[in-house]
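Q: For a teaching session next week I want to show students how multiple molecules come together into a single three-dimensional assembly. I've collected the sequence lines for a complex. Could you give me the predicted structure tokens for the whole thing so I can convert them for display?
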Amino acid sequence: MNDPAGTISDELVYAYVDGELDAATTARFEAALAREPALATRVQQQKALRARLQSQFAHIVEEPVPQRLQSALTATAATVVDLASVRDKRESKTVERGWSWREWGAMAATLVIGTWVGTMIRNSDNPLPLTAHNGQLIATGELRTALSEQLSGADVAGAAVDIGLSIQTSGGQICRSFTLAAGQAGLACRRADDWIVEVISPTTAAGTGEGYRLAATTLPEPVRLALEARTTGEPLTPAAETALKQSGWHASPASTD
Amino acid sequence: VTENVALLRRMLPVVLPRLRRFARTLARDPHDADDLAQSTIERALSRAQQWRPPAQAATQEQTEVAVRSWLFGIMKNAWIDNRRAYGRERSLFPGGDSHTIEAGDNSSAALQERLSLEAAMQHLPDEQRLAVALVLVEGLSYQEASDVLQIPQGTLTSRLYRGRETLMRLLGDAGEST
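A: Of course. Below is the structure for the complete assembly, covering every listed component.
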């Protein structure tokens, strides 16, 4: 690279600035650079352009990622996962329908509208994502996934489940309100690795105007009362939810004080 | 495949900030850019089964690069598919279009600087803007950028060359200031 000034191509200058020259070529280029001020100016111009472009957009990676993008990460993933579990659910449907009325009756006390839920779960066309175990209703399928994965208020187009808000009870338990696209709303609380559905109620026709989604304020009365009965505090913030999600929705003992 | 999907899902939040930045170099309006990022995530997750990790013993960093390249490629396609919606029709003549710079209050010199550079970026033809965004803003190697754009490396460097020339011309003396 003993070229006189000006004969080194722009391509070579660009490749040097972009760090694309191999070690030997870089060494020869830098030797020329030391000899020729004109070449140094060209390199400087290109470095300045690169630096300007980078500082121009640098702040964007420091910005907090908007909630809707955070939600897209988990919510859409949930529906993807669901595709696989849909088949399993179809297989197990016959088992779910096999529960006797005696068993449903035993859990009616924990439900606001027990017989209605029983009817809904047994409806073969549109079974609720619930299963009964030891007299309690446990969330399954898409409801279970949404309760564990979705942040509150996530605006997920076409989702079967919307999560309204999360609270921490005075006993330190995490409970979350949900709305099903099929037309029910309820409250589920975390126990061990399950979500126990403590209240479920049909949503009123008021919700149909805006599709299935209901704000917390328009939750059915039984769900709203159940929420109020469990906490006097504010709903959990998105940051608190994110932290809880990572700990499997179990509040750390310290934060229950 | 399930493991790959799980790996992809773990890497997505890591890559997301840079995905947003790439979107901002393509769609100037921040909301449009986040729309683009969102539809990229949705496309990626709906095709998660198709993604393959680089190699058996890939490091965390190699995996991150692989996920990033894959997502940048999806974003490029999403952007091209919705070019009209994100880019809006813009004049090819800088300064001749009052919409190109919309600085309501120009109290801040830094804001002006940013606007003029962003405006200049918006005037680059799509293919040059993609090359400039990936190499000069995102700092990708020529190899990785040509993988993302699925073009030969020679095509990439010639687009990059023309993109640089155009930017230098549009920025003119302002390019030297600050």
